[in-house]
Amino acid sequence: MSEPLPIAGRVPDLGSLDLLLAVARLGSLGRAARELGITQPAASGRLRGMERMLGVALVERSPRGSRLTPAGVLVTDWARRIVEAAEAFDAGVQALRGRRDSRLRVAASMTIAEYLLPGWLIALRGGRPDTAVSLFAGNSAAVAERVLAGEADLGFVEGLEVPAGLDAAVIGHDRLVLVVAPAHPWVRRHRPVGVDELAATPLVLRERGSGTRQVLDAALSEPARPLLELASTTAVKAAVVSGAGPAVLSELAVGEELAGRRLVEIPVAGVSLRRDLRAVWPRGQRPGGPAWELLGLTRVGAPG
User: Fold this and answer.
1) Percentage of the chain modeled with pLDDT above 70
2) pTM of structure
3) Which domains are assigned to the chain?
């Protein structure tokens, strides 16, 4: 016993059903073709193909026009229900897309969340005032986990490599700087701090998993020695300002403190502390809607 054809092989396409409904309404194959924006030969071919598929004659043609056969009347009634259902389906999908495009879930590393993202989101709101944005701020590892789990539409990370399972675009660059309180002995030295000395010095550090810690550990001859490990850049800065010890932080994060002399930058010799800033999303799934627009804004406004 042969397998039945899939339903797509037994039911005419929506374009053919639309044509049949137009013929029934207008009483003319030519007028139906003009209404649908196709040629009369194409309309005739489409109608013949539908009749072959169904195995019945649907329209009787004469010099006075076209009229439905008894079978055509029945098929037209069924076709109307299919077309109406398709229109309802399309309206539902459009509404679903509208709801999706009215929200944006962003996950960003602490430095980007605090010092870059607010400006990008303000610009996004100018073009999409009805988009509701939710933001998760954490270290780069936590951001990658959120994006991979489908809990964020777009992520922003710092670090050396693209997290596994994600596609990425470099949106800017950043530099890490060594900073101390104004009373720290390194302020009075006349030569840069060497990489070995920096590796041997206990530092106020971000937690493991942060992009800042990853770049610093990779740049040193051995993993950085923690004096304190803190979960936010703000906490690290506060500890350094209070005199707890040196720290290596994003240049973006300490600009205000350096300008106000609450922190002092100390040159470091023999090591590069430059890093990429990246937008990330699940591999093979290009961002869409407001996430795509936000990505475009970051490329305009990110540091070079």
Assistant:
1) 92
2) 0.63
3) 7-99 (1.10.10.10), 104-301 (3.40.190.290)
